[in-house]
Biogenesis of lysosome-related organelles complex 1 subunit 6 (Lingula anatina), 165 residues
Amino acid sequence: MGTQTETTGETKHVLEDTKNCLPAPSKETIEKITQGFLQHYLPDAQKAKASLDELTQNQRILLETVQHENTKFSECEAMKKLTDMMIKAKQYHTKLLIIKKEMASLHERSAKLKRRALKLQQQKQKEALQREQEKEKEMERERHLMAKPVLRQSSNPEEKRSYVT
């Protein structure tokens, strides 16, 4: 490190000596150096500027194109979502029609069952009424068949009463 400090110190010393040795440049010299510098580097700088301008323009065009494509993509996505939604709506409509048919079928079957139950109930009532009527006829017949007392005209009071069979 000590060596580097010495070298740096010497370099500073040499530079200070050079400053003192060179005369100050004149305005004409500065002007010529400036002109030479500009003549040497200006065409390249102008070409670089033109290239940068062209690049900037191309980037704008590319950006607009990408934005346009993004818009198309978004529209495509929206269209796909709409298509999916329409497919689902059709599926739900089909399911709804199936459920509607099933409900109509169930309603028809329940109506048939109600009619059948009513017929069975009427049949049972009819049978019960018939049984009751038969019972009454049987009872009436038994009452007619029961022996009835007949009065005979006889002199014996015990013989007066006899039963007719």
